[in-house]
Amino acid sequence: MRVLVTGGAGFIGSHVVDRLLADGHEVFVVDDLSSGSTDNLSAAFDSGRFHFHELDIRDPGLGALVVEWKPEVVCHLAAQISVRRSVADPIHDARVNVEGTACVLGAAREGGSRKVVFASSVAVYGHPPVIPVPGDAPTDPRSPYAASKLGAEAYLSSYRALYGLDFTTLVLANVYGPRQSAAGEAGVVAIFTDALVDGKPTVLYGDGTQTRDYVFVADIADAFVGACGSEGGGRRFNLGTGLQTTDRRLHSIIADAAGANDKPGFAPPRLGDLPAMAVDPVPAYEGLGWLPRTELGEGLRATVEWRRSCRR
Ligand SMILES: NC(=O)c1ccc[n+]([C@@H]2O[C@H](COP(=O)([O-])OP(=O)(O)OC[C@H]3O[C@@H](n4cnc5c(N)ncnc54)[C@H](O)[C@@H]3O)[C@@H](O)[C@H]2O)c1
Question: Which terminus of the chain has a smaller tally of CB atoms within 10 A, N or C?
Fold first, then answer.
């Protein structure tokens, strides 16, 4: 299969690329390197079945490129990913996440693609009344980022209705693993890992009881690759473990893996922080045959090992 991965130089996108190449597919990446890096693609460049183009997804040249490449499937992960930046600059967020998605869909249509696999976020659920969030939970966007992800989802539906462009939406919980940047606010695992491996202080916001659903990046890459092959039918699936992990426990596991002191500092909770989150993975199992396979301790040890190898 020929697959285009937008945002393929990023944290999750580069794992999707590696997994597609390992399965023998031909892979094309468009990325403007605004937060991603070609360092994440060093193995891909050696594969002989990999093509990279540095380009903003909103660039008018995207259509011609996709017509030339003719990908059967487009995995669309390029995005403005920071909730806080979306609040500070909602126009930029909408331009990248909504306008950018419209550009990717137009190019996919021009290039004759069969399907789009889209990366959405659990942010679309706002403060969910039921945890783990069921597959059919109502959405409640409480940030421009959540609104732009939902807007992009609506564009996917409209292109399917108008042009028959198939899609699957994958709604991602908190993804962690090797290559995640500690610069992004989404990456609490990366932030703790960097600090604990380097022997630097760490801070928990609130009393440490806030929970998140941490899912390992290789498992997410499996879901993207699985969704490339299947018929999407315009369905959306939550991808997480269904398990809630407190900030305090997360810190302890990473400190243990890093052989560091498990003594975080505490700071007041941040405005707008969600107290708890986890999503029900059962519908993804029923619809995609996907299950998260990596136990949290195992995934966090692999992340610490990767961070150590970068320091050598
Ligand atoms: N990391 C998570 O926990 C998480 C959770 C939910 C959803 N997501 C979604 O998954 C996707 C990937 O996120 P990530 O964590 O790998 O982030 P990332 O920042 O590492 O990856 C995003 C990639 O998109 C590229 N990009 C950004 N704007 C672009 C543009 N205008 N044109 C071309 N390329 C552009 C960046 O350079 C980067 O390589 C995003 O859509 C994000 O919203 C991530």
Answer: C
Superfamily of domain 178-211+243-275+294-311 in the CATH hierarchy: UDP-galactose 4-epimerase, domain 1 (3.90.25.10)
Residue 208 is given by DSSP the state S
Return d(Cα 207, Cα 205) in angstroms, integer: 7
Give the fold, CATH level 3, of 2-175+214-242+282-288: Rossmann fold (3.40.50)
User: pLDDT digits over 2-43, tens only?
Assistant: 999 999 999 999 999 999 999 999 999 999 999 999 999 999
H-helix or E-strand spanning residue 52: strand 50-54
Going by alpha carbons, the residue nearest to atom 35 of ligand 1 is 78
Distance 77 CA to ligand 1 centre (A): 5
Coil/strand/helix, residue 211: strand
DSSP for 216-280, written as a single string: EHHHHHHHHHHHHHS--TTEEEEES-S--EEHHHHHHHHHHHHT-----EEEPPPTT--S---B-
Longest pairwise C-alpha distance within the chain: 57
